[in-house]
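User: I'm writing a short report section on ligand binding and want a predicted complex to refer to. Could you take this sequence and heme C and write out the structure as tokens? A short remark afterwards would be nice.
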Amino acid sequence: MKSRKIIGWSFALLAFGLITSCSKSSSSTPDTTAYFPKVKTIIANNCLSCHSSSGSWSGRPTAFDSDSAIASSATIINTAVAGPWTFMVKKMPQGSALSAADIATIEAWVNKGGKATD
Ligand code: HEC
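Assistant: Sure. The structure tokens for the complex follow:
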């Protein structure tokens, strides 16, 4: 009788432990925001007119019209919109600038990993 009670309690504790550890691990994840969909929209609205295989190209063969093309250029895209600008990486979009909010979104995405899943 006594041992049954102990077994019952240990199951209860085990179940409780599992539940709390599960909820803990999901709530301790620092950042679950997916930035990439927003980044894609920013690129579509501000960059694809020049940087796409169907766009004007404007003298540079850099196309951002696929998820993988955007992700593999994450760092240089970040530099192009936020600086520091150099002779090699000029300020983009050419002739204008993104809003501070858009630049912050791109920076947050690159800091998170700069992948199509980030
Ligand atoms: C009006 C056309 C135009 C738009 C819009 C534009 N770019 Fe560019 N981009 C260019 C040109 C032209 C170059 C080449 C500049 C040079 O090297 O003199 C360039 C170069 C770059 C480069 C450097 C890599 C390379 O191949 O030279 C990056 C990165 C880049 N652009 C990103 C962007 C991003 C991100 C946006 C949108 C926020 C954007 N561009 C919008 C015309 C454009």
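A remark for your report: The pocket of heme C is lined by residues 46-47, 49-51, 58-60, 62, 73, 76-77, 80-81, 89-90, 92-95, 98 (CB under 6 Å). Helices lie at 2-27, 36-46, 67-72, 74-82, 100-112.
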